[in-house]
């Protein structure tokens, strides 16, 4: 990407960010929420470090990665960009227990704790290295076979044991909605919020973080209580139509 292309792409990123923030603000207003309650996470899996740097310059401060190996490569790459000191990376994709070592201590938040076994592996790694991880429990609210995560009943059963694990703080819940079905997406997001309210009341913890909403459904997620929306194409792809 030459200098002219960089300038054009940087202008696109800044303009698109303003559009996204306006849509978040509008959705929050419809729900009687403060837009500042919603954090915009730029999913950087489809771009490389120079594009992440341009996104940083456009105002983004938090990024999400799907693959542990790409997270490690990204963290190594941004060492060449000192202006990005303090950048936040989260792990949002499926995480295998044998990849925990690449994630614990390298991210601000793990969104995708999908089993007791994975929670135990994160806890063990953290305890052995003096690191406490902030995590979200991934819940398959919609019940789709293609999606990972606890079922609502499984997370109810597992919560107390997970909360007792050392070197790990459960901050809330994460979910993915069915694709291309707005009504199902709304049911998923409202179901996640209601489950969080139930678990918070039972545990006495705030569980204040709800990570839900992606490129095609994030305004609905905001209306239903999301505090983190995870946007990839909407942020980085100039050909994506922000409807």
Shape: globular
Please state how the strands of the largest beta sheet are arranged side by side. Answer: 3-2-1-8
Q: What's the total count of β strands?
A: 8
The count of helical stretches stands at 8
Provide the number of structural domains: 1
Helical fraction equals 40-55%
The description of the largest β-sheet is: 4 strands, parallel
Order of helices and strands: HEHEHEEHEHEHEHEH
Q: Tell me the radius of gyration.
A: 18 Å
Strand content: 15-25%
Structural class: alpha/beta
Low-confidence stretches: none
Looking at how many chains there are and whether they match, the oligomeric state comes to single chain
The CATH class label is Alpha Beta
CATH architecture: Alpha-Beta Barrel
- Provide the CATH topology: TIM Barrel
The CA-CA distance between the termini, in Å, is 28 Å
CATH 4th-level superfamily: Alanine racemase
Mean pLDDT: 96
Task: Please summarize what this structure is.
It contains eight helices and eight strands, in the order H-E-H-E-H-E-E-H-E-H-E-H-E-H-E-H.
What does this structure look like?
By secondary structure, the chain is an alpha/beta fold. It has one domain: Alanine racemase (TIM Barrel), CATH 3.20.20.10. Helix content is 43%, strand content 15%. It contains 8 helices and 8 strands; from the N terminus they run H-E-H-E-H-E-E-H-E-H-E-H-E-H-E-H. A 4-stranded parallel β-sheet has the order 3-2-1-8. Strands 4-5-6-7 form a 4-stranded parallel β-sheet. Strand 6, helix 6 and strand 7 form a beta-alpha-beta unit. Helix 1 packs across helix 2. It is globular, with a radius of gyration of 18 Å. The model has no long low-confidence stretch (mean pLDDT 96).
């Amino acid at each position: 990407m030459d200098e002219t292309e960089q300038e054009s792409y940087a202008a696109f990123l800044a303009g698109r960010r303003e559009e996204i923030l306006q849509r978040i603000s509008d959705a929050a207003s419809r729900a009687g929420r403060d837009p500042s309650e919603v954090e915009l996470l730029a999913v950087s899996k489809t771009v490389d470090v120079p594009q992440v740097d341009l996104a940083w310059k456009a105002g983004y401060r938090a990024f999400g990665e799907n693959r542990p190996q790409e997270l490690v490569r990204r963290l190594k790459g941004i060492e060449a960009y000192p202006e990005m000191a303090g950048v936040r990376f989260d792990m949002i994709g499926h995480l295998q227990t044998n990849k925990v070592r690449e994630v614990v201590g390298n991210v601000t938040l793990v969104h995708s704790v999908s089993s007791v076994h994975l929670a135990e592996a994160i806890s063990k790694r953290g305890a052995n290295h003096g690191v406490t991880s902030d995590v979200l429990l991934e819940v398959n609210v919609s019940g789709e076979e293609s999606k990972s995560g606890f079922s609502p009943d499984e997370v109810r059963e597992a919560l107390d044991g997970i909360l007792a694990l050392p070197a790990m703080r459960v901050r809330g819940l994460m979910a993915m909605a069915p694709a291309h079905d707005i009504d199902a997406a709304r049911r998923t997001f409202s179901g996640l919020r209601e489950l969080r309210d139930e678990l918070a009341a039972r545990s006495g913890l705030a569980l204040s973080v709800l990570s839900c909403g992606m490129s095609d459904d994030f305004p609905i997620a905001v209306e239903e209580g999301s505090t983190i929306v995870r946007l990839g194409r909407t942020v980085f792809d100039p050909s994506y139509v922000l409807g």
